[in-house]
Design brief:
The chain is an alpha/beta fold. Helix content is 42%, strand content 17%.
Length: 219
């Protein structure tokens, strides 16, 4: 088991420059990370920079608030896939979930997954705004809609990943979906604890720091 196989090397800052995205991709190739995760406007650039490597390309949609229309999110997903994304990380409509509009939440996820086909869909719940019951419900809705992953956070909310939430999400999805921990993961010890708890991906902007001194360091 290698820690780099879990890392989605992430740069979603609105001030990220072309040079920053190129550096992100270069680091991902150097450290053999699982994926890079970028905003939609950088997908074409990142795809070009990753050409010839095994690093996957993930793009965020409905980011970071999740409150745009389902139609807008579907278009974003299609655009990202057409430009070369391998995976999509989408933010749920948090207001719909908290309003009890379960079918609308599920249908939005379902439509986006249909657009992606065999591409990977990660559903961001933004747990800091949800009760335990809402987290559990969101996980079950995502699974029933065909999501591949449920994910803790955008990193732009009032809180990020917690051990408590990961345990709750793992229990809720069982073997029906994978779990991604994201938001505030900046040290190796924390990342290893999440992996020990059973997460399949770690979303972090601190990938090289998690690796230590050697680009090919392993667990």
């Amino acid at each position: 088991m290698r820690i780099q196989d879990y890392i989605d090397h992430t740069l979603l800052n609105p001030t990220a420059t072309v040079a920053d995205i190129k550096k992100l991709c270069k680091e991902a190739i150097q450290y053999q990370f699982k994926a890079v995760c970028v905003n939609g406007c950088h997908v074409t650039l990142a795809k070009n920079e990753l050409k010839g490597s095994t690093v996957k390309l993930a793009a965020v949609i409905g980011f970071p608030l999740g409150g745009m229309s389902a139609r807008a999110k579907i278009f974003e997903a299609r655009d990202c896939i057409e430009n070369g994304a391998d995976e999509v990380d989408m933010v749920i409509n948090i207001g719909w979930l908290k309003s009890g509009l379960d079918e609308q939440v599920r249908d939005e996820i379902f439509q986006i997954k249909q657009e992606l086909g065999d591409k990977t869909l990660k559903v961001i719940l933004e747990n800091c705004y949800l009760s335990d019951k809402e987290i559990e419900k969101a996980c079950k809705l995502a699974v029933s809609a065909g999501a591949d992953f449920v994910k803790t956070s955008t990193g732009f909310g009032s809180g990020g990943a917690t051990f408590k939430d990961i345990a709750l999400m793992k229990e809720a999805v069982g073997d029906s979906a994978l779990v991604k921990a994201s938001g505030g993961i900046r040290d190796r010890e924390t990342a290893l604890k999440y992996i020990e708890m059973g997460v399949s991906r770690i979303g972090t902007s601190s990938g090289p720091k998690l690796m230590g001194d050697s680009p090919k360091s392993s667990l």
